[in-house]
Write a structure and sequence with these properties.
- The chain is of the alpha/beta class.
- It has two domains: 1-108 and 265-369, Isopropylmalate Dehydrogenase (3-Layer(aba) Sandwich); 120-261, Isopropylmalate Dehydrogenase, CATH 3.40.718.10.
- Helices cover 40% and strands 18% of the residues.
- A hairpin with a 5-residue loop joins strand 6 and strand 7 (158-161).
- Helix 8 (226-235) runs parallel beside helix 9.
- The longest helix is centred in the N-terminal third of the chain and has 17 residues, at 16-32.
- It is globular and about 60 Å long.
- The protein starts with a strand and ends with a helix.
- Bound molecules: 1,4-dihydronicotinamide adenine dinucleotide, 2-OXO-4-methylpentanoic acid (COI) and magnesium ion.
- Magnesium ion (MG) is lined by residues 251, 255, 289.
Length: 369
C-alpha cells in the first residue's frame, strides 16, 4: 500500500461538485480496497467561496493547497457571479491557485478511446488511435502579463489592455517538460506560437530551437503558427505527438483537441511545478479541462470521466501509483466499450446514463479487477 498522502479537493461550482462526487467514490474505492491511504481535505473555491467568504479563494485555502501533496480541482464560474467585480470573479481563484502553486506546465492529453471513435465530430478514421499531448504554459503569457486593465482615454473612449509576455526562463522550463515527455512517447515536439506577428512568439521559437539543439538533440522539433495548428488539428490530428504552446493558445487548442475525442467531458489535465531538490516535492494540480457547464449543471447528466481521469493523472504524476492510475483508465475504457454513455457521448437511438450511473458503472468495473 502507498504511504499516507495528503490531498485537497476543491469541487467549485456548477457541475464541479457533481463530477467531484464521482471522483470521491474512486478515492473511497482505492482506500477501501487497501490500495492506498489518503488524508483528504475539502474546501470552497470560485463562486462557492465568493458566496461564503467574499473572495474566490481565501488565503487559508491557498495555504492548504501549498501544504498538501496534490490538489484535485473541479471547475469554477457561472452566470450567478457575472456581476461580481472582475478582480474577484470565480475564475480569478483558479488563476491565483495556479500562480501561487507555481504550476507552470499544464499537461492536456487528448486520447481517443476505441469505443468513442464514432463519437468524434471528425471521421472515425481521422481520430481512431489518436494520442496527443498538449503541454500548455500555465502561469505566464497574456493571462498574467502586465500592463493589463481597462483605462479611459482623454477622449473618453475606453481601452482594454492585456499583454503577452514570456521570458527565456519561462519558455525553457515548459519546453523541458515537453521534450522530456516526447522522449517517452514518439520523440516529436511541435512548438506553437505566432512568431510571424508577435515578438513573444518569436522569442518562444528561438528559445525552443536552442533548447532542442543543446539539450534534446534526440527529439525532433517542428514549429507551427497557432492558427495553422488549429486547422491541422481538425484536418489531420494524428500528425502530432507533443504540442507545446503558451497559455492562451494552449487553452484554445486543448478545447479543440477535446472534441476530437468526442467530448469536453473526457479530457483531464495535470499541471505540474518544478521539483524542489531539497524536499523532493513537486506541486501538482489536477483538473478537467472543461468549465462549470452552467447549461447542464444540476441536471445530473455531466460526464464525470474527465474529473476521474484527472484523478488518475494525480495518482500517476504526484503519487507514483502507476498501476492504480492504469486500472482507472482501463476501467473507463471498459465502461465506454459497454456503451455506458452520458448524453454528451450518446450513441444515437440508445439510452443514456446519468452522472452517478456513470460512477456506478466505473466502480463496478474497478471492483471486478
Ligand atoms: N477550469 C475551469 O474552472 C474553467 C471554468 N470555466 C468557466 O465555466 C463557465 C462556463 O464556461 P463555458 O465556456 O460554457 O465552458 P464549459 O467547459 O463549462 O462548457 C462548454 C460546453 O461543454 C459542455 N460540457 C463541459 N463539461 C462537460 C461535461 N463534463 N459533461 C458534459 N458536457 C460538458 C457544456 O455543457 C457546454 O455545452 C464560465 O464561467 C467559464 O469561465 C471555463 C473553462 C475552464
Ligand atoms: C481560468 C480558466 C477559466 C481558463 C480556462 O479556460 C482554462 O484554464 O482551461
Ligand atoms: Mg479552457
Amino acid at each position: 500500500m502507498t504511504a499516507n498522502k495528503t490531498l485537497l479537493l476543491l469541487p467549485g461550482d456548477g457541475i464541479g461538485p457533481e463530477v467531484m462526487t464521482q471522483a470521491k467514490r474512486v478515492l473511497n474505492w482505492l482506500q477501501a480496497s487497501g490500495r492506498a491511504s489518503f488524508t483528504i481535505a475539502e474546501d470552497l473555491v470560485g463562486g462557492a467561496s465568493i458566496d461564503a467568504n467574499g473572495v474566490p479563494v481565501t488565503d487559508a485555502t491557498v495555504a492548504k493547497a501549498k501544504e498538501v501533496d496534490a490538489v484535485l480541482f473541479g471547475s469554477v464560474g457561472g452566470p450567478k457571479w457575472d456581476k461580481v467585480p472582475f478582480e474577484i470573479r470565480p475564475e480569478a481563484g483558479l488563476l491565483r491557485l495556479r500562480a501561487e502553486l507555481q504550476v507552470f506546465a499544464n499537461l492536456r492529453p487528448a486520447k481517443v478511446f476505441d469505443a468513442l471513435a464514432d463519437s468524434s465530430s471528425l471521421k472515425p478514421e481521422l481520430v481512431r488511435g489518436l494520442d496527443i499531448m498538449i503541454v500548455r504554459e500555465c502561469i505566464g503569457g497574456i493571462y498574467f502579463g502586465e500592463p493589463r486593465g481597462i483605462e479611459t482615454l482623454p477622449n473618453g473612449e475606453q481601452r482594454g489592455i492585456n499583454t503577452e509576455v514570456y521570458t527565456t526562463h519561462e519558455i525553457q522550463r515548459v519546453g523541458r517538460v515537453a521534450f522530456d515527455l516526447a522522449r517517452k512517447r514518439q520523440g516529436r515536439v511541435c512548438s506553437v506560437e505566432k512568431a510571424n506577428v508577435m515578438e513573444a512568439g518569436l522569442l518562444w521559437r528561438q528559445v525552443m530551437t536552442k533548447l532542442q539543439a543543446e539539450e534534446f538533440p534526440d527529439v525532433q522539433l517542428s514549429h507551427m503558427y497557432a492558427d495553422n495548428c488549429a486547422m491541422q488539428l481538425a484536418k489531420n490530428p494524428k500528425q502530432f505527438d507533443v504540442i507545446v504552446t503558451g497559455n492562451l493558445f494552449g487553452d484554445i487548442l486543448s478545447d479543440l483537441a477535446a472534441m476530437l475525442t468526442g467530448s469536453l467531458g473526457l479530457l483531464p489535465s495535470a499541471t505540474l511545478g518544478a521539483k524542489d531538490e531539497a524536499t523532493g516535492r513537486r506541486p501538482g494540480f489536477y483538473e478537467p479541462i472543461h468549465g462549470s457547464a452552467p447549461d447542464i449543471a444540476g441536471k445530473g447528466v455531466a460526464n464525470p470521466l474527465a474529473q476521474i481521469l484527472s484523478l488518475a493523472m494525480l495518482l500517476r504524476y504526484s503519487f507514483d501509483m502507476q498501476e492504480d492510475a492504469a486500472a482507472i483508465e482501463a476501467a473507463v475504457e471498459r465502461v465506454l466499450a459497454k456503451a455506458g454513455r452520458t448524453p454528451d457521448i450518446a450513441v444515437p437511438g440508445r439510452a443514456t446514463i446519468s452522472t452517478s450511473e456513470m460512477g456506478d458503472a466505473l466502480i463496478a468495473e474497478l471492483e471486478a479487477i
